[in-house]
Amino acid sequence: MNKINIPTHCPCCGSELELVNDQLFCRSNSCPAKSLKGLLHYTKTVKIMGLGEKTLEKLGTETVADLYAYTMEDLVTKLGEKIGTKLFNEIQKSKSITFSKFLNGMGIPLIGKTASEKIASVVNSIEGITEESCKKAGLGAKATENLMDWVLSEGLLLELPITFQESEPVESGLLVCISGKVPGYTKAKIKEMLLDYNVATKDSVTKDLDYLISNEAGTTKVKKAEQYNIQVISFDNFMEKLNNEYTTKVE
After folding, report:
1. Which ranges constitute the DSSP H helices of the chain?
2. For residue 214, pLDDT beyond 50
């Protein structure tokens, strides 16, 4: 049997690797691979659609701050008018998110969705995070330590154009069918996005649908929807409708 040589240094940045429970970790804060993974986690968490690994690499994005520094012209120049414009609008929408979603997106060890929601139930700003507020939120010792380390080393230095909202979209209970292509999105991504609003999807047009989402006219599904008096709506207009009508404030 050939002997396996365990790597000692990160293949991306060359930093020394740390072995923890049979897993290797790169601890360098300047490792490009770690930065990319962190950005992907953030964009997925805050639902910036159309911003995957290849797009981030093409843009040369290194930090979350870089993401919010892009102008419409920057994105259109690098990605083309249609994709660049859509991505710019997606980034603008992500400037208004809940504090819990923001913290979850930061990729802080042990501060996932549940821990983020706990601390966000007590404070609504980075400045409000203290050992006392962590204790009040019911965070464990290690989670508190990780969060405080992040606050002191990175959190207080962040200058992002983000407004922390006090609510999440409420469940709509709608049933829709998606027809045709939506530029910049796959159907799988759209379905994942709609789950946040409790919007169910099906592949065929039936009488129980609330909407047919289609950017194309005259297709077989559109004609069938019209026969059933089902409203046909573009993807952008449907998302705008969800954000306007299915949002509630937490008192």
Report:
1. 32-45, 53-59, 64-69, 72-79, 81-93, 99-105, 113-120, 131-137, 141-153, 187-195, 220-227, 235-245
2. yes
